[in-house]
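INFO batch 0412 | record 1 of 1 | parsing
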Amino acid sequence: MPGVKNKRRFRRERDERRALLISLSRALIIKERIKTTEAKAKELSKFFEPLVTISKEDSISSRRKLARYFEADLVKKMIEEVGPKYKERPGGYTRIIKLGPRDSDGARMVFIEMV
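INFO prediction complete | emitting tokens
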């Protein structure tokens, strides 16, 4: 019996899901707080927190790992601003604040922000 996969699909193909998470991550780095659905925020948290852990160390390998997802200016911001900000923190770099349902379709909306 195959194991259970614990990732949300969002009715998208794999590449589309990855592009969605990268786009949300970019917005979170730039704005530090974004409004999205609860499901997307939870997946974004699982995707984004390891990237923050990578950015704590300023090395060539960490810059290359981040460069797979972000442009040069965002990599620089991650290494120089975000990484040192969370140097002493062992994890839990994002916070999800629940809002009410969206008017149009009733989807549960949240703010996700960097702590």
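INFO post-check: Residues 37-114 form a domain with the 50s Ribosomal Protein L17; Chain: A, fold (CATH 3.90.1030.10).
INFO record closed
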